[in-house]
């Protein structure tokens, strides 16, 4: 810690990071051990974070990330969208299909940026704000594939007719972006995804990941 930083704020942020990294929450004792501070300090940190809805405690006393974090996270979407647009535009024009950036929002896949090609006679209408289950569609399945194999690149995921009849999709996950789960993909009207699309989608996903690091 330096003279310009706040020890209390630093500890509070560390609490949020620790809670974000667990699905089952943490007790006051566990947080105390991980932070290297006494339980009284942890109680005060949790009480403050609870007042801002950033932390909640269940009936068993385990602390978890609160809904207030989701509200903060939604404000990040415009920044993420801006960073991703150049790669999405290039992808849409190269492939001649609608390109999109999809992020996890709760238990769903949420399209936060969409770019349509300018030169095609027709393309799939896919709007920013569109939601669907992670288990359906290439965008969500690519994210789930990255979850299952966090140390490996799952490559490009292909689907057909899962979100719209007659449409197929290809998507690759964003890898190496701390605190963000997402994918980059394209959706097109076709019986199958052309062979060249997969590698191009993976390149675009890498470009977006680099822009967000």
TrEMBL record:
Signal peptide: none
Domain HTH iclR-type intervals: 6-67
CDD domains in the record: HTH_ARSR
UniProt KW keywords: DNA-binding, Transcription, Transcription regulation
Domain of life: Bacteria
Gene3D superfamilies for the chain: 3.30.450.40, Winged helix-like DNA-binding domain superfamily/Winged helix DNA-binding domain
InterPro entries, alphabetized: ArsR-like_HTH, GAF-like_dom_sf, HTH_MetabolicPath_Reg, Tscrpt_reg_IclR_C, Tscrpt_reg_IclR_N, WH-like_DNA-bd_sf, WH_DNA-bd_sf
The IclR-ED domain, residue ranges: 68-213
One Pfam family it belongs to: HTH_IclR
Protein name: IclR family transcriptional regulator
Organism: Streptomyces kebangsaanensis
């Amino acid at each position: 810690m330096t003279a310009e930083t706040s020890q209390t704020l630093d500890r509070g942020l560390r609490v949020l990071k620790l809670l974000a990294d667990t699905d089952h929450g943490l007790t006051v004792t566990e947080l105390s051990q991980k932070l290297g501070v006494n339980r009284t300090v942890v109680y005060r940190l949790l009480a403050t974070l609870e007042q801002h809805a950033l932390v909640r405690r269940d009936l068993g006393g385990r602390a978890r990330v609160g809904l207030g974090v989701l509200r903060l996270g939604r404000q990040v979407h415009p920044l993420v969208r801006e960073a991703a647009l150049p790669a999405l535009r290039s992808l849409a024009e190269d492939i001649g299909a609608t390109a999109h950036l999809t992020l996890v929002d709760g238990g769903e896949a949420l399209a936060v940026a969409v770019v349509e090609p300018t030169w095609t006679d027709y393309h799939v209408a896919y709007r920013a704000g569109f939601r669907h289950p992670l288990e359906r569609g290439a965008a969500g399945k690519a994210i789930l594939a990255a979850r299952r194999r966090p140390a490996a690149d799952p490559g490009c995921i292909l689907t057909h007719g899962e979100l719209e009849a007659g449409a197929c999709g290809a998507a690759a996950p964003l890898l190496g972006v701390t605190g963000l789960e997402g994918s980059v993909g394209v959706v097109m009207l076709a019986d199958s995804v052309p062979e060249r699309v997969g590698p191009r989608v993976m390149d675009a996903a890498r470009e977006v990941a680099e822009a967000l690091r």
